[in-house]
Amino acid sequence: xxxxxxxxxxxxxxxxxxxxxxxxxxxxxxxxxxxxxxxxxxxxxxxxxxxxxxxxxxxxxxxxxxxxxxxxxxxxxxxxxxxxxxxxxxxxxxxxxxxxxxxxxxxxxxxxxxxxxxxxxxxxxxxxxxxxxxxxxxxxxxxxxxxxxxxxxxxxxxxxxxxxxxxxxxxxxxxxxxxxxxxxxxxxxxxxxxxxxxxxxxxxxxxxxxxxxxxxxxxxxxxxxxxxxxxxxxxxxxxxxxxxxxxxxxxxxxxxxxxxxxxxxxxxxxxxxxxxxxxxxxxxxxxxxxxxxxxxxxxxxxxxxxxxxxxxxxxxxxxxxxxxxxxxxxxxxxxxxxxxxxxxxxxxxxxxxxxxxxxxxxxxxxxxxxxxxxxxxxxxxxxxxxxxxxxxxxxxxxxxxxxxxxxxxxxxxxxxxxxxxxxxxxxxxxxxxxxxxxxxxxxxxxxxxxxxxxxxxxxxxxxxxxxxxxxxxxxxxxxxxxxxxxxxxx
Length: 490
Description:
Elements: H1 9-14, H2 16-25, E1 32-35, H3 42-50, H4 85-99, E2 105-110, H5 117-129, E3 133-140, H6 158-168, H7 170-185, H8 188-205, H9 210-215, E4 219-225, H10 229-240, E5 247-254, H11 262-265, H12 268-271, H13 292-306, E6 310-315, H14 321-329, E7 334-338, H15 341-353, E8 357-363, H16 364-367, H17 371-379, E9 386-390, H18 407-412, E10 418-420, H19 425-437, E11 443-446, H20 482-489
Parallel strand pairs: 1-2, 2-3, 3-5, 4-5, 6-7, 6-8, 8-9, 9-11, 10-11
Domain Transketolase-like pyrimidine-binding: 290-455
Protein name: Transketolase-like pyrimidine-binding domain-containing protein
Keywords: Magnesium, Thiamine pyrophosphate, Transferase
């Protein structure tokens, strides 16, 4: 799998022990296990009868790179874009309670998806509904976006593991419930005081930020070593044995898998320091290995060097090597917001209103999540945001969740949006230059993944925006009650 370039392998290897512990304690498919991102699920697939199909990723009618309901009874909810497992898990938990069933529900999220607002919306609602739900936060060194400081992670030591076991134990949980019952009998004032003492005490026991989860209504346990199966099994067994626990968040820290081969070490992070930003005018010399991403970043770099007002906003996607190099060269012009597409669009709109020229770089399939912001915050106000829609069209081995065939349709119906789609890499570079010059309305251009066509032309020009033709209306197409209005108007 490494030789075939699966970028998700590193994430799945770091979560092997956690996956084994979850399947040891919980009894899928009776118990429901939801995974927030497909790159965590390889070990899960192997343990649930799909080992012989692991080499068929990306092939037609074979194994999906994400969980899929139609693929296995062990996949109660399909994953893909991330950030959805708590919402879906809460839905399964509430449905279980209404139907009087007894299965347990586990939602596994990652530190990457905690940049999404949906995660906190779901946690807040889970705290309010108080249904039994276990949320496991897999806080891993592995991330789609490299961290500035590897030492910023919460340390794991014997004390934190011991505290996690104590927090999840039956005796502590029961003592806490008894204490709450006693304080309720002593009046509202004392009860509220005791609740605050409990909250602050647990905040002191846990790492920085643990009180946030408690404020949302989740009982926080952690951090615990996510690569220690014995500790994981101990805590998971304690949590699963409680019949009325409400929503619980278990914080586990997992280590990144270190690369052992040259291919594994050829990651964007390791290559970025020694790789120059490609120049679109000279890329044709080695065209066999150049991608549309190379051309886009090369053309964008040329515009950034010419115009100090151009900035980039990067959302919801894996950092490809050219973007790593771009960030190294223009750190003050590059904003990586993580899996927060809605924020990325409105943030870009704010940058534009402040006098800058933002290029909002989002994969086509993830732009779907931010369409309300595109309509309301950008197009309605004619804010000049430049959308670079990556991974457009059919993307092959990524499967249906990675394909982006809809952006032309949902962007071209907007009244103020200019939509561009290049036929080759030279047109793509020219469209970047054109977009940089448009200041009176939003514009978008799309480009696919993969190797370029191979056109040997200069890219130092723009594409004029003009009306191709005009004609009188010869036919009226209407829907529902609009027919008479159209007839009266014309």
